Amino acid sequence: MPTWIRTRRAVLGSRRLTPTPALLVVEGNRIVEVRAADDTPDEAPSDVEVVDVGDHLVTPAFVNGHTHLAMSALRGVGLEAMAGNIIEDLYFRIEALLTADDVRAFTRMGAAESLLAGVGAVWDHYYFGEAVAAGMADLGLTGVVAPTAQDLAGPGVPRLEDALDATARLATDDTWSERGIFAACGPHATDTVSDALWRRIAELAETHQIPIHAHVAQSVEEYTRSMQRHSASPVARLGQLGALDAGAGMLLVHGLYVTEADLARLKAGGNVLCYCPFSQLQFGFPAAVEGWWKAGIPFTVGTDCGASNDSMSVQQELRLLASGRAFAVAPSTVGRRFRAEGAIEQAAALDGLRRQRRTEQQALADPQTLLDTVWQVPGRLHPKLEVGELRAGARANLCIWDADDPAWWPRTAPVRALTMGDIGSPWGLMVDGRWIGERGDLRRSLLCSDDWREMRAEADGRLQALARRAGLPEWLSRLTPASRSI
């Protein structure tokens, strides 16, 4: 049955930010028409569902540009290992013990948290890719799944051929595309993937015309290995291997150790960088995203995972993107000199640096720039995803926000609330043309359902079993009481 969604306030996309009265016509999983409010009949045909949301704000659902949904299971584990390379020092050890059923159960937890944060699509990268896709489909989440491929190091090494086969199946099986789930190639990182495998992945991306999604220059170990083994930076090596030009584009995640020369190698038409600010604050440091902006390379924003972020709300990342450059003021040479000596002229110099940094970051704080990173850029990167906009032909992924919630009061700056506010869960959420939960009662209707209780119980049990297999008694002791209280 077609659905008409009437609203007096719709933000149709990052290029159309002024709220406007509109009627969205949804058929199947697509928005087939967007009409001006004064261009619609008062009465709808009898075979149409009419949803009139009045003053509630309608926007595209958010898109998480990079995540590992299943890694919400590792939230709070081994945080002391963040001082080193937690991926190699801890996560690989635990992930080597995972089963496909574990990944599906844990993915559901991350998917539910994402939906409650207004995220309708994700770019996921993990082991057992088809299990990730199944877990997403169980909750109704759409997105792009990159089965993790490794042949030099990491828990994916013994499952390499399975990962490549899963990528091909996800790319060709209509069962997944009908649920709004698509494939990307998932080489893990430049130091866990050989030249030979990079070439195979580039060929696979070309064959299926899908993107490549990889961690690039995310650690000092990765950068050092690339320079020592190949006499080239990670980005330069990818250019030499043809990976930057393969398939439907490349999503390069983290980029902590990306140079100006590397940025010059990237192509604005086919390469997209990904910034995960809160995660990077924990495992490394925030990437120099202002350099990406100045170089004209499009970028998206992702949460990374619950294990290194503690949140699946990609919308909350926007505040740090908008204002994060100001953190460089206090620890600067100017700031240290002022704190040591306290002279008036040094205070003036510190304020001058504050003003300079604010001017330099102004473009990054523009609402269009911010919302592009969680709507249009990741929504268009895969040629079949088509989300992040409310336009005819786009996939019907949209949020309805409660105009009466105090986070939006006094309703004079809805776009600022979208980028800088703590807006919580949407009043209503449609993903792939299907309503998630109940309009006006999304959180309760999802978390109080019998299906959710069963999913949560399974995930709890599997997490306890994983902690026992991993030989982490402290982790297990913290899990047991919470599970018993359910």
State the main characteristics.
Urease, subunit C, domain 1, 18% strand, eight-stranded mixed sheet, 21 helices, single chain, five-stranded parallel sheet, alpha/beta, TIM Barrel, 486 residues, 3 domains
Q: Could you provide a short overview of the structure?
A:
By secondary structure, this protein is α/β, with parallel strands linked by helices.
Outline the structure in words.
- It is built from 21 helices and 17 strands.
- The chain has 486 residues and is of the alpha/beta class.
- Strands 1, 2, 3, 4, 5, 15, 16 and 17 form an eight-stranded mixed β-sheet that branches. Strands 6, 7, 8, 9 and 10 form a five-stranded parallel β-sheet that branches. The chain has a four-stranded parallel β-sheet with strand order 11-12-13-14.
- The protein starts with a strand and ends with a helix.
Overall residue-averaged pLDDT value: 93
From the 3D structure, determine the CATH topology of the largest domain. TIM Barrel
CATH hierarchy: architecture of the largest domain = Alpha-Beta Barrel
How many domains is the backbone divided into? 3
Silhouette: globular
Largest beta-sheet characterization: 8 strands, mixed
Q: Which consecutive residue ranges, at least 5 long each, have pLDDT under 50?
A: 481-486
Tell me the CATH superfamily of the largest domain.
Metal-dependent hydrolases
Number of beta-strand segments:
17
User: Which CATH class of the largest domain applies here?
Assistant: Alpha Beta
- Structural class comes to alpha/beta
* Rg calc: 23 Å
Alpha-carbon distance between the two ends: 38 Å
Report the portion of residues in β strands. 15-25%
Helix fraction by DSSP (H/I, runs of at least 4): 40-55%
| Helix count, DSSP H or I runs of 4 or more residues | 21
